[in-house]
Design brief:
Layout (H helix, E strand, L loop, with lengths): L1 H20 L4 H14 L5 E5 L3 E8 L2 E8 L7 H13 L6 H8 L2 H4 L5 H18 L4 H23 L4 H19 L6 H8 L6 H12 L3 H29 L6
Antiparallel strand pairs: 1-2, 2-3
């Protein structure tokens, strides 16, 4: 039975880790672990969810085991969150725990996302579409698409080389602003192109999860995510500021 608890607690930890590091709010992580534990036949589960750490304790027949796992990264991928939620719904007392655990640790398969070329294309089109909403014309649309396409590619390249994520944001926002500023010849429309092209860097999920966590009483996680979002925003501002100094833009709105 001790071996059974060992594999089950590993399953719960892996479920929580996948949810936490792919953008789920704290309440979703806790409910996911509790649902999985209930489906596995455990009436009582103790857990603690921190910004990058999860601790789970199981009690069964007077046997108690507590384990901790660390969420190594914070990548937003709601397809993974949805996949894990679907897996939790299929768990029951007859589920083979070893097979289930092998599925959950195959993070590359669970975290599969759209092809990289599609991601770059959609990032460019998304930012370019916002430029039209902000009052840009077709030329600004093209410039914004090119700048955000380059910026997204640069961002991915640096992150794959394990650079500090906040330094990456500074470099990427600087590069994106420089490209969009130069292609618009530092005209009045440069403001629209620059502000639109860096939108793919905006930490919207971090701020949304921060507010949700604070409202639901998860103050530590909410504050941590909020501070992270502020730091990302500050890094974006530094990159844009440096670019504007080089472009000699006196007023940026």
């Amino acid at each position: 039975m001790n071996e059974q608890i060992q594999i089950n607690i590993k399953i719960l930890l892996q479920i929580g880790k996948l949810l936490l590091q792919h953008g789920a709010e704290t309440e979703v992580v806790e409910m996911g672990i509790k649902r999985a534990a209930k489906n596995l036949g455990y009436k009582t589960v103790e857990l603690l969810v921190l910004p990058n750490t999860i601790m789970v304790g199981l009690i069964h027949n007077d046997q108690a085991i507590t384990k901790i796992i660390r969420a190594e990264r914070q990548d937003i991928n709601f397809r993974t969150v949805d996949s894990v939620e679907n897996i939790i719904s299929t768990i029951n007392l007859n589920t083979n725990p070893d097979k289930l655990f092998s599925i959950l640790i195959d993070e590359q398969n669970l975290s599969s996302i759209y092809p990289y070329q599609i991601q770059r294309l959609m990032a460019g089109l998304g930012c370019a579409s916002f430029s039209l909403l902000f009052g840009g014309d077709f030329y600004i649309f093209i410039v914004t698409f090119i700048a955000s396409f380059i910026g997204f590619s640069f961002n991915t390249m640096l992150l794959k080389r394990f650079f500090n994520p906040f330094l990456v944001i500074i470099f990427v926002s600087f590069t994106t602003a420089i490209v969009s500023g130069l292609l618009t010849f530092n005209t009045a429309a440069s403001n629209i192109a620059i502000s639109s092209s860096i939108l793919f860097l905006v930490p919207s999920v971090a701020f949304i999860n921060s507010v949700n966590d604070l409202i639901k009483g998860h103050y530590t996680n909410g504050l941590t995510r909020g501070i992270r979002g502020i730091m990302v925003s500050f890094a974006i501002s530094i990159g844009i500021f440096l670019a504007l100094q080089i472009l000699a833009v006196e007023k940026f709105i």
